[in-house]
Structure formats: structure tokens, C-alpha cells
Specification:
Elements: H1 14-25, H2 27-30, E1 34-39, E2 45-50, H3 65-71, H4 75-84, E3 88-99, E4 107-112, H5 115-128, E5 130-140, E6 146-158, H6 159-174
Antiparallel strand pairs: 1-2, 2-4, 3-6, 4-5, 5-6
């Protein structure tokens, strides 16, 4: 049974459904034990499930923290890339996890990027050429109890700004 927090008024497009199917079978993601349940057509919302099974349990019989972290790894970066388009560069910069309660049952996560977050990102990139944005995610059980919280820091830049900075760094490296 999914938690109420996974209810949405968004719909999945054929394009995002197909991408979700691909990601679920992509070996690097499949190996985490996570499963993508939903990917909205506008890429602003993604739902995951992580079951305790042979691939995800640890020595003490709970869901391995590395599985929680890895299953939640690429999504904010991928969502931002799909939303912002080809004129932006997005990289994951850092991530951290805080464990609240051992996961002995199936856990769920809901990624959401709001209009306000997108406005903030676009404004900061327009002013500075680049920005960093922190996103927070909870792994919850079917009752909505938080078992772990993950923070992800993403670097977002205008592609021209990013390329110019990259070229400047390469030039300075050769002129030392």
C-alpha cells in the first residue's frame, strides 16, 4: 500500500513512461533495488519504491542505507535537465543522508520541483550564470513515517557560462 503522500494530480506522458521503463531496467539503477513508480509528463514529480529484499537488506535485517541513498541518487539532476532544457548544465554536487528509523518494510520517496524553485533557479542563473540549489527528500513507509532524509545539492548553470568557465580553467592549467 502506497502512502497518501504519493497521490498526485499530475499525469505521466508516453515519453516519461518510456523513460521510466528504461531507467527501471538500466543496470546501474536496477542494482540499487529501487523502482520508479511514476514520472510526471512535465518531469516535476517522480515517485520511487524501495523494498527490503535480498539486494537491499543489511547485516541486521533492515534496508541498507546505501540502497536508500543510491536509489534516490540521480533524480533531481535528471528532472532539472529535462525541465530546463539543453541551454542549461546540471550536475549533482553533494549529497547526505540522515537516518531516522530502521527500514524494515517497503519505503517510498516523492521528488517534487516547484514553480518557486524553478523561478529561483532561473533568476539566479540569469543574474550570475550559475547557482546551487538544495533539495530534500524523505524515505517514508506506507503510514508516512520518515525513515531517512536525503539532501542533494545541484549545480545549475547556463551552458555558455559553464563552457566559458571550463575553457578558462583549462587555459589556466596549461599556463602554470
Amino acid at each position: 500500500m502506497k502512502p497518501a503522500s504519493l497521490q498526485t494530480n499530475r499525469t505521466e506522458s508516453f515519453k516519461t513512461w518510456r523513460f521510466r521503463q528504461f531507467m527501471n531496467w538500466y543496470p546501474m539503477y536496477f542494482g540499487t533495488g529501487g523502482k520508479i513508480l511514476f514520472w510526471s509528463g512535465d518531469s516535476r514529480e517522480v515517485h520511487l519504491r524501495l523494498r527490503r529484499n535480498l539486494w537491499t537488506y543489511n547485516y541486521v535485517g533492515t534496508i541498507f542505507g546505501g540502497s536508500m541513498f543510491a536509489a534516490a541518487d540521480p533524480f533531481y539532476m535528471l528532472m532539472l535537465l529535462r525541465i530546463l532544457g539543453k541551454s542549461y548544465v546540471v550536475w549533482d554536487k553533494t549529497g547526505s543522508i540522515r537516518f531516522r528509523k530502521p527500514g524494515r518494510q517497503t519505503l517510498y520517496a516523492r521528488f517534487n520541483i516547484t514553480d518557486e524553485q524553478l523561478d529561483t533557479i532561473r533568476r539566479a542563473v540569469a543574474e550570475n550564470g550559475q547557482t546551487e540549489q538544495t533539495f530534500t527528500l524523505d524515505w517514508v513507509d506506507a503510514e508516512g513515517v520518515v525513515h531517512a532524509q536525503i539532501e542533494r545539492l545541484c549545480y545549475i548553470a547556463d551552458k555558455q557560462h559553464y563552457e566559458q568557465r571550463k575553457n578558462d580553467r583549462q587555459k589556466s592549467r596549461f599556463h602554470r
